[in-house]
Specification:
This protein folds into 3 domains: 118 residues, no CATH class; 120 residues, no CATH class; 148 residues, Jelly Rolls. Strands 4-1-6-7-8-9-13 form a 7-stranded mixed beta sheet, with no helix packed on it. It is an alpha+beta fold. The two termini are 23 Å apart. It is globular, with a radius of gyration of 24 Å. It contains 9 helices and 13 strands.
């Protein structure tokens, strides 16, 4: 069983790391730790990638430093081989010391948590409080991190920009504006030329376009940028309008959230469309309309429930499916807290761990400027109930065998 689990984990790792990237440019080995625009995201994902491998190595055994060290060394070896292949054989990948260190840490953590069956009730009580505080910290960080970051600096206007990992927009851009400020191509704007509301996170970004043929990927229509980073953007992903703003978390190496309005470009290849991406505290609204009065629009809440989007490893425009991800994200956080709380009881059904779940609920509701969608609440409640049920079953099973 352990060998099969190790093989399955290695197969998944190989499929995710030995696939050629889009870039054809040869890249050398990077000795930097957590570098690049999305360096923090890369570290988190590389740690998570090797957790199952480390857990498979130590699964079913009592905890020992020997097993954890063995998982650490095995992860180092596997990761080094992958980075060497990416350096000399696999095109378009970014081999780095940061990947090796994060992979080794993931293997070590996986081996360390694979022995939960031998923990005492007292240990689980400490884990339950730690997990509750950690979940609350994640929610508070997410609420801060998802908010827009709009500095008072010089801004640059870009029409139909060509960037790596994007495809060309096949239509034409006729006009581009921010609120009442026109944004001609190549314009350079000082902060004083933009309205004060813009720096408070209130804006209406508008573009008039002729869509053209459907792109296979994300095409940039227009954006407002600093010298080295994007601030806001309108684009197209197949028939959807996409809108992105720079979040505060981007300064810490996380990805910016990107929202999608499906069917915005449907059957409008040759007619002009008015596109709009509006931002208000806690709300992003996308709309598209033509000269005949046809209009599609959708609003998205920007709360801590949407913080999962900051950890995406690739460009991903979130449409209606984002609500499901909101629920899944909160279910994961609440489920872990409830599982640990259930395991911390001498008698599994003696008490419901309200003190821990209430802590997370208070953090979720007190810091959000807009209430999360109902799917987020359903996910949180379902995750907590499932986690508690699994924890109770596990405690009962262990008490029956002891």
């Amino acid at each position: 069983m352990r060998s099969a689990a190790c093989l399955a984990a290695l197969t998944a790792i190989a499929l995710l790391t030995l696939w050629p990237g889009r870039s054809e440019t040869a890249r050398g080995f990077s000795w930097c730790i957590a570098c690049g625009e999305f360096g923090t995201v890369d570290v988190f994902l590389n740690v998570a990638l090797f957790v199952p491998f480390g857990a498979a190595i130590a699964w079913g055994r009592a905890f020992s430093i020997h097993d954890a060290t063995k998982a650490l060394v095995a992860s180092l070896i596997v990761s080094a081989i992958i980075e060497l292949l990416q350096l000399g054989v696999i095109k378009g990948r970014d081999p780095s010391l940061s990947d090796i260190a994060a992979n080794a840490l993931g293997g070590f953590l996986g081996a360390s948590v694979a022995h939960e069956g031998v923990w005492s009730v007292g240990t689980w009580r400490r884990v339950s409080w730690t997990s509750g505080l950690a979940a609350s910290s994640v929610l508070m960080f997410g609420q801060w991190a998802i908010q827009p970051w709009l500095p008072h600096e010089t801004y640059y206007v870009q029409w139909l920009p060509q960037r790596p990992a994007y495809v060309q927009f096949n239509g034409t851009l006729q006009a581009f504006a921010l609120d009442s400020v026109r944004l001609p191509p190549g314009a350079v704007l000082e902060a004083r030329a933009l309205p004060d509301e813009f720096f408070e996170g209130r804006m209406d970004l508008r573009a008039r376009v002729t869509p053209g043929s459907t792109p296979h990927g994300i095409a940039l229509i227009a954006r407002l940028s600093l010298r080295s980073s994007e601030i806001v953007m309108l684009g197209r992903a197949e028939d959807a309008l996409v809108f992105r703003y720079r979040a505060k978390a981007n300064r810490a190496g996380f990805r910016n959230p990107m929202f999608a309005l499906p069917h915005a470009f449907a059957t409008h290849a040759d007619s002009a469309l008015q596109l709009e991406g509006a931002l208000r505290p806690g709300i992003a609204t996308l709309s598209a309309s033509d000269d005949h009065g046809l209009r599609v629009a959708r609003s998205f809440t920007i709360t801590t429930a949407r913080a999962w989007a900051l950890l995406l490893p690739w460009n991903f425009a979130v449409g209606g499916s984002g609500l499901l991800f909101d629920g899944a994200w909160l279910a994961l956080l609440f489920g872990g807290v409830a599982y640990a709380a259930a395991r911390s009881r001498f008698r599994p059904y003696a008490a419901w761990p309200l003190e821990l779940l209430a802590l997370v609920f208070v953090c979720l509701t007190s810091i959000a400027p807009a209430a999360p969608e109902w799917t987020a609440w359903v996910g949180a409640i379902a995750g907590a109930a499932l986690g508690f049920w699994l924890g109770v079953r596990r405690s009962v099973a262990l008490s029956d065998t002891s």
